[in-house]
Amino acid sequence: MYKTLKLIAALAATCLSALAFADDGARSMRGVDVAAPDPAPEIKPYVGKRPGTEAPVARTFSTQPPVIPHAVENFDEINLEGNQCMDCHSAANYKKKKAPQIGVSHFVDREGKKHAEATGGRYNCVQCHVPQIDAPPLVDNTFKGDAVKKPVKRN
Question: What is the pTM of this model?
Fold first, then answer.
């Protein structure tokens, strides 16, 4: 009898708490209902024009990968057959194209062995380096960063 009363009380408490939290009106950080479709447009234009026409974007903190200061809409997808970024930024081409060379860390594999070309782990540029999009922030942000003024010297 005592176990039955305990079980009934537990079930009643569970039902009451489920009713209390059933529709809490959860909202995302953007202030919209989490079940609502995303109001952001699907495609936003990249900041920057042709490669070589834009100034480098200042880094926010010293270890930040440089951002891509030019549009990349017409670039081919990076895959095993090709990487269009290397047409300008590889060790063989950067001087002719007057482009920044990829960092020396991109030529070292996980075992510390140096290579003449970018290693497989550093071949997918857009994994770390991103183009800039002109979009308002989704949430309020007071981050100031380190205000790095000069380029970071690479090892």
Answer: 0.60
